[in-house]
Write a structure and sequence with these properties.
Layout (H helix, E strand, L loop, with lengths): L1 E5 L8 E5 L9 E8 L3 H7 L16 E8 L16 E3 L3 E2 L6 H4 L11 E2 L17 E4 L5 E8 L9 E8 L7 E6 L10 E4 L11 E7 L11 E6 L4
Antiparallel strand pairs: 1-2, 3-4, 3-8, 4-5, 6-7, 9-10, 10-11, 12-13, 13-14
Length: 234
């Protein structure tokens, strides 16, 4: 069992409760808490000054911990694999949409209307999702793919086409290369406007199907094509 300090509701004393140690889903991390801050936001939470708080909660949104367990392969912001025993911290804002103005233009995911925040917007009924606990459950992070393509430098389809796919944990980057082809299709196909429908990925999000149209090169080439591809992760 794991002990945690729980805020049952506004203006009610903190309680220490026990929770079962969670089983990790793919991409999740379980931290052994080292430090967790008590800040002004927690005071506001205690007095009920913030709307929409799903009491009871496990507070603590600024934390440092040691990785106790990892669910599969998880990387840091630089793309380096994380491992058990490392001491880490993390951004408390989670589950942002990656599509709104705040996420894509302002690069302020902390203002995303769909954001969730560890220690604030997760109920204690959802698990160890706050730092005032012996262990913190970090949910899997989403992936964002950036696809770029281009014809030959002379804009000649007969000379081939280039395709690049990059990935990041944030819609604004930093991005790292996960797929590249200098000549990614034949002249007979004349690739144009590639797309990567996310619903066509496999369960591990490592391979999928690439959808693209033909080009204006000839009328018979102007038709859609589909072919598989696989992301090359470090």
């Amino acid at each position: 069992m794991v002990r945690a300090a729980v805020m049952p509701d506004k203006d009610i004393p903190i309680e220490v409760r026990e929770f079962p140690r969670p089983r990790l889903e793919e991409g999740a991390i379980l931290l052994r808490t080292i430090y967790s801050e008590v800040c002004g936001t927690d005071v506001h939470l205690h007095h009920g000054h913030l709307a929409g708080v799903p009491y009871p909660i496990i507070p603590g949104h600024v934390n440092v911990g040691e990785i106790a367990e990892i669910g599969g392969r998880v990387t840091d912001v630089h793309g380096d694999p994380l491992r058990a025993g490392q001491v880490v911290t993390f951004l408390d804002v989670h589950e942002t949409c990656g599509q709104c103005w705040f996420c894509t233009v302002a690069r302020a995911s902390t203002r995303c209307p769909k954001r969730r925040v560890y220690g604030i917007t997760y109920s204690a009924d959802e698990g160890l999702l706050g730092g005032w606990s012996e262990m913190i459950y970090l949910k899997p992070i989403g992936r964002y793919l950036l696809l770029t393509w281009g014809l030959h430098k002379d804009f000649d389809a007969d000379q081939g086409s280039e395709l690049t796919i990059l990935e990041s944990e944030h819609p604004w980057g930093p991005f790292r290369l996960v797929y590249y082809e200098e000549l990614w299709e034949s002249v007979e196909v004349c690739p144009y406007c590639p797309r990567v429908p996310l619903q066509w990925f496999d369960a591990e999000r490592l391979s999928g199907w690439l959808l693209y149209s033909g080009s204006w090169h000839t009328v018979e080439h102007y038709r859609p094509h589909v072919r598989p591809f696989e992301l090359a992760l470090a």
